[in-house]
Design a protein that fits this description.
Layout (H helix, E strand, L loop, with lengths): L5 H7 L5 H16 L19 H20 L9 H4 L3 H27 L3 E6 L5 E5 L26 E5 L2 E9 L1 H5 L5 H28 L11 E3 L3 H13 L6 E5 L1 H4 L16 H5 L4 E2 L2 E5 L4 E2 L5 E2 L5 E6 L6 E13 L10 E13 L6 E4 L1
Amino acid sequence: MNKIPTNVLQFAGEENLGVYKMFADYYNHFKSLNGDSKAEFQEATADGVKLTFSEKEEKLNAALKREIMRVAGITSFESFPVATWSSHPTLQWATFAVVSAMIDMILPQSVMDATSAFAEVRNIGWGDVAQFTVKPNELFVVSKSSRLGKRTTELHKWYSGQVSVTPEPRQMTVYVSLMKVLDGKESLAEFVQVMIRSFEHSLALDVYNAFSTAMDTIDATPVTGLKVAGYTQAEFVRLSQAVRAFNGGGNVIALGTQLALSKVLPSNANYRYDINSEYTRLGYMNNFMGTDLMVLPQLANIAVPFTTSVPDDRIYFLSAGSQRIVKVVLEGSTLSWQDDTYDRANLMQVSTMYKSWGTGIVTNSVAGIMTV
């Protein structure tokens, strides 16, 4: 369930949150239709009548139009033709102010859902800089002593560090026909959904790249290092127990794409699995040698069609209870600006959306990596 961000609550007011909750439900329904089994959405009305995705979209577009009118302070929309309203500056502002609030309603939770295994998401105000405290991941030395008198041994103290993550602005420019949106000929709900997915993809790619870069710097010393080239059952278990031991005994997960996790199999050549087995159904095992396996969602590589961005030859060992490796900072609310309705012969408007975020490696956690 999506939490209501503070800026969305401030923008809409408690009494007007219904349409934003409708959009969150619509977006989760869309994700479910596209394979996200964990997405929660309303399947039926209070009377038990099943709600289809197309019905939700139709109702949402009507609710969005009412919300835009409320924000613009317009109470008599039917008094003038749609073409007349489409050039109304206050209506233009209200439309994209509502769109920005919709983006802010979904994006933070969406990123958390996709990267929660290794990333922590924090929202800050415009112009702020996020400060993260890193506490030492170590124990004090315990020494043997004599029974004779008062003695001191090697002196120890914990010193915490601080790391700053500064967001940087990103922007996305799109065409939109406000006239067609207001007339119901184009779906505003679908338009916003695509914009959110675009921001989500770009942000997730930044998070994965930061994570992958950090993991590739891990020590690769043979036998003792936490970076191993080539899968073996023995090294899989060694990495898992080493990460567990140096993170205070917390549970360890092995994180990788579905293809990478499919390589994790017992070393016994007599191992067999039947057609109903977990490996056949999922493509990997949920747990191997006491370590939970978790799929890292794959990302499309937009620059090279039909290729993917997340490496399929790496398995990452992380302690679920320790400090997340990547810190994601979202700055302020989504901003936008639009040109005039009559700047183009086709009466299309250009809208540029601004969203600011930053990623950084801030952790005291010990992790491991294995190439397969």
